[in-house]
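As the next step, I selected for study one protein, both as residues and as discrete backbone shape codes, as given directly below:
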Amino acid sequence: MRILVVEDEPLLAEAVAEWLRKSAHAVDVVMDGDSAIERASVNDYDLVVLDRDLPLLHGDDVCRRITAVENPPRVLMLTAAGSLDDRVAGLVMGADDYLPKPFAFVELGARVEALGRRSRPAAPPVLVRAGLRVDTHRREVVRDGRYVPLSKKEYAVLLELLLADGAPVSAEQLLEKAWDENIDPFTGVVRLTILKLRRKLGDPQIIETEAGVGYHIT
């Protein structure tokens, strides 16, 4: 998923982002509400992890703004106030889930994955295509009985291609889902990742290039 973390405590923001990146998510980080609204207006996020207690522009106002669009991202709200009234208020204003601070990162990850299943069709537990068997829970890839070790980005790109079910996926779509905003849109990182995937998956090649369109798995 493409995720925006909005948290004014720098150490916590980076800790959350790094935890989510371990699960092959593309994560952007901002420290204030105005930046969150600006980023959400230009990037297609699947999920926003939002601190409710932001300075200046309150998290409540941010939530209302970013969910008042046709296809809003899911919102997981974080806050030090964990009373029932606070949780209800957060959900009423548009948040999809509510996690009080302090929290366990394993619970944060579980809630993020649960919201991800709501924002897009859930990937089946096992994907099988063209001799590939991908366990999406363990993030393990096997081709013709051979285990294929992949980096997080390689796995993320492969998963997007598999979920497309044979339809072409553009380089821009892969950048949007597998990388964060720090990536140069004119970089050749998608092409390089595809090359590495082809080499690791071996012959016969199953990732094909459609000139001017994108990539698909046969």
Q: What stands out?
A: Residues 68 and 162 are 32 Å apart (CA to CA). The chain has eight helices and eleven strands. The longest strand covers residues 74-79.
